[in-house]
Amino acid sequence: MFVFETIDQPELFDHPFSDEEALPSWILDRLTDTDSGETRRLYAVVDAAKTVNLPELLQASGLPHTCLFDGKSAEELANVCPWLVELDRTTTFSRALFSSDPEGKDSWCHWDKGCAMFVLSSAALKDIRKHFRKFLKVERSNGSWLYFRFWEDSVLPYFLNALPANDQRRYQGLFCGIGTTRLDQVIFCQPLLEQALVVSGAPRGSLWHDRPPERRYGQRYSGEKRA
Q1: What is the rounded CA–CA span in Å between residue 18 and residue 22?
Q2: How far apart are CA 139 and CA 148, in angstroms?
Q3: In this model, does residue 147 exceed pLDDT 60?
Q4: What distances in angstroms separate CA 62 from CA 20, 38, 83, 84, 126, one per listed residue?
Q5: What gap in Å lies between CA 222 and CA 212, rounded to an integer?
Q6: Are 95 and 64 a contacting pair, CB within 8 Å?
Q7: What is the rounded distance in angstroms from the CA atom of residue 25 to the CA atom of residue 56?
Q8: N or C: more exposed end of the chain, with fewer CB within 10 A?
């Protein structure tokens, strides 16, 4: 149900400050859907717990952004919670997420921190936020709830890879989207492995909730009048 693609030693920048392209070529190649020709937007879910002063950096960047938490939690946990930002091809912050300094001397190079998960989709920021908020918590068998850090490369890819095929259907929505909010690809940076991991879900139109009513429920729900 999920397709895993590994990009070994992906092209990265050695510093974020430049007037040149802010996105590496392997990302640029994915901004256009090769089947439909549709232009995709690039988002990042960035972990504030791994990125010092993230709320201030996002504000200064001028990029569209929002916290995935709401209300009091967003206020109290702003410096440790996940933030959603729409990236572009010109800003320093966009380039910083793809900049690498393995020695850790340059705090502006964020790739090696493993702080971001990237999302390719044509959906709007508000719709992506609404989608991901559905997966922020998971219920335990005893009825209690835990935060689900799905944006971390050490959590979700290995979790999904270990699931039997039948169980993967339950998590299709996280990577494929629900209804009109489609996610084309999700990309995890894995600096310790010197690679990026691309996760794709089922092809468009193959999910149960993408099917027309007559395919989901049978002919009596197809809108045809019964005799």
Answers
A1: 8
A2: 9
A3: yes
A4: 18, 25, 14, 13, 17
A5: 8
A6: no
A7: 28
A8: C
Q: What is the pTM of this model?
A: 0.83
Tokens (6 digits) for 198: 């691309």
CA dist., res. 165 & res. 167, Å (int):
6
pLDDT tens per residue, range 15-43: 999 999 999 999 999 999 877 888 999 99
